[in-house]
């Protein structure tokens, strides 16, 4: 009986220590802030009521509430926040089509094919090539900006992008 009581006591002590450590780790830094309802006006007209937070003299209202006030959709894409229309992103297939349209004459003359090599920053890296029965011959390397559709060519000799 003493062993069972001893085991129960040790179990309770260990459990309290774990719970206390977890609560202490989760507590972090405490701040003093005021939660308050705000009437949100746009161009002098009340559009919405939103709950905000006042901390260190700054007022924080959720972006969603501001978007609602503006009658705009709020979207997050990666680390970008959009109010209203989200910036359209060109797909890989669209980038290939854009490039083929830009080099249409040579693409037809040399029967060029295009493949996506990868993504560098905001640009698709593309390779235009001729496909022979025993090898492929690279015609050129190009970039298509995912947001603007602007096409540039990589000049191997000058080691830089050039406009085409």
TrEMBL record:
Residues 1-25 form the signal peptide. Keywords: Signal. It comes from the Bacteria. This is Copper amine oxidase. It comes from Paenibacillus ottowii.
């Amino acid at each position: 009986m003493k062993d069972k009581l001893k085991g129960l006591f040790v179990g309770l002590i260990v459990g309290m220590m774990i719970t206390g450590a977890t609560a202490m780790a989760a507590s972090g830094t405490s701040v003093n802030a005021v939660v308050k309802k705000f009437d949100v006006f746009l161009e002098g007209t009340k559009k919405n009521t939103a709950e905000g937070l006042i901390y260190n003299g700054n007022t924080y209202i959720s972006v969603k509430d501001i978007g609602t006030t503006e009658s705009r959709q709020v979207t997050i894409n990666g680390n970008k926040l959009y109010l209203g229309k989200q910036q359209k992103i060109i797909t890989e297939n669209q980038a290939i089509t854009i490039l083929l349209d830009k080099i249409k004459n040579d693409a037809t003359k040399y029967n060029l094919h295009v493949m996506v090599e990868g993504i560098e920053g905001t640009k698709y890296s593309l390779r235009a090539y001729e496909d022979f029965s025993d090898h492929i011959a690279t015609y050129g390397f190009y970039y298509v900006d995912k947001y603007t559709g602007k096409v540039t060519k990589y000049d191997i000799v000058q080691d830089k992008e050039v406009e085409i």
